[in-house]
Amino acid sequence: MRDHSQMSFVLSLILVSVSIQLSASDPSKTNWLLNVLLPPIGPEDANFKHSEVPPLVIVPGHVGNRLEAKLDKPAVVHWLCMKKSNYYFTLWLNLNMFLPIGIDCWIDNIRLVYNRTTRRSSNSPGVEIRVPGFGKTYSVEYLDPFKLAGYLHTLVQFLVNTGYVRDDTVRAAPYDWRVAAYEQEEYFDKLKQLIEEMYTAHNKPVYLLGHSMGNLYILYFLKEQSQEWKDKFINGLISLGAPWGGTVKSLAVLASGDNYGLALDLMKIRQQQRTTTTNPWLLPTSQAWPADHVFISTPSYNYTYKDYRKFFTDIGYEDGWFKWQHSKRFLTDLPPPGVELYCMYGTEVLTPMTYVYDENFPSNQPVQIIYGGGDNTVNKRSLSLCEQWKDQQKQKIHVIELRNKHHFDTIYDIDALQMIQDILLGNYSEH
Ligand SMILES: *[C@@H]1O[C@H](CO)[C@@H](O)[C@H](O)[C@H]1NC(C)=O
Ligand SMILES: *[C@@H]1O[C@H](CO)[C@@H](O)[C@H](O)[C@H]1NC(C)=O
Ligand SMILES: *[C@@H]1O[C@H](CO)[C@@H](O)[C@H](O)[C@H]1NC(C)=O
């Protein structure tokens, strides 16, 4: 299922479904996959180059880098699924997931198995998964080898135009985004090594830049480092659209699935989304929301953050409760980063804050969505939690609100990119 004619067939399928969805759906549906399938064209011409740029490490968001798999499976879910491969192939983003049987094979390869005793996730039996391109940028620039789905390409190209050099002064730290930070010791060791290596090579402290969930990995990483280490190696953190207090959307994803606005079977994709430990990690926190705020409303119950146990039981996903229990501490504590922070996010865009379901909960989609402020994906209450660190650390916290900008505008929009450049070149001022 891998030759070019098939690929372009699949691509046209996707584009057809994208345009159907675009015309039919509300603005909240225009989410990340649409953005990456139809990215804006970035500036490709280098103009004036700066030679003394500070080194930069980028940590992408959820589903924001490639994953590769190699198979030697004891069993497959359909006879058409590949059972054994002698090589690693791209599992994310893999266009076979848009084919009727392809999606079943894909889910059985990408799913994780959770062990409640060890609180660890492992791959589906007979599947080896690796993250390609650590320390390079290609795996976050485009999510597929055919360069159809452009994610951080616009941002990286913009930086290259100002004088950055790919895989030298700008590097990325992709990770297995199925797995929450508490299971990522090995990744954090590699990240630390990468930062120290860049510090040594360029004789300058390193900037970190995260998009979306990537910022939670950065924060988790910084929590583990001594202040002395941070003072020496880190120049600052630029956080773009960070869900510091989780997202309400993650509850809807776990309840009824998220097909990324495409023609994917919701109940199937939900099955995959429930196997990760990242989705339960991102539940909205008590830091961000009042105790009586209803996230999910059904004819029989109104769920607030005090009702997560019942929520997981009612949606038939007990593992989710264990996963959340194990991971919630970090986001409710929300330790200050201990480095200078540029906390950038979009605001004043309609963002779901309550999902209303009918009696078919959780197997049907919500019948109504109540919106509040935010960047369309993350609620303002969550994005703006970085404010509180102003009193908790001596390093500066700059809160930069981008009005009317969406979650993905922070990495695509020219104003945001310009601001990132100003910060990196030491040319940023509050006014
Ligand atoms: C979970 O891990 C424990 C300890 O390694 C092991 O004894 C147990 O069999 C595992 N459970 C499952 C369901 O694999
Ligand atoms: C849920 O909250 C709404 C709005 O406050 C209320 O009208 C409804 O009766 C509540 N439902 C239940 C089951 O408590
Ligand atoms: C920095 O800002 C100043 C004043 O706004 C401007 O004149 C200068 O060109 C900028 N420098 C860079 C490197 O962008």
Radius of gyration computed on alpha carbons = 21 Å
Ligands in the model, by name, code or SMILES, are: 2-acetamido-2-deoxy-beta-D-glucopyranose
Spatial order of the strands forming the largest sheet? 7-1-8-9-12-15
Kindly provide the name of the CATH class of the largest domain. Alpha Beta
Shape, per Cα inertia axes: globular
> How many structural domains can be distinguished in the coordinates?
3
CATH superfamily of the largest domain: Alpha/Beta hydrolase fold, catalytic domain
Q: Which CATH architecture of the largest domain?
A: 3-Layer(aba) Sandwich
InterPro entries: AB_hydrolase_fold, LACT/PDAT_acylTrfase
GO biological process, one term: lipid metabolic process
Pfam families: LCAT
GO molecular function: O-acyltransferase activity
Strand and helix map with partners:
Layout: H1 4-24, H2 32-37, E1 56-59, E2 67-71, E3 89-92, H3 102-110, E4 112-115, E5 120-123, E6 127-130, H4 138-141, H5 153-162, E7 170-172, H6 185-202, E8 206-211, H7 214-223, H8 227-233, E9 234-240, H9 249-256, H10 266-275, H11 278-281, E10 296-297, E11 302-303, H12 308-314, H13 318-333, E12 341-347, E13 351-356, E14 368-372, H14 380-383, E15 397-403, H15 409-412, H16 414-424
Parallel strand pairs: 1-7, 1-8, 8-9, 9-12, 10-13, 12-15
Antiparallel strand pairs: 2-3, 2-6, 4-5, 10-11, 13-14
Helix pairs in contact: 3-10, 9-10, 12-13
One 2-acetamido-2-deoxy-beta-D-glucopyranose is lined by residues 294, 297, 300-302.
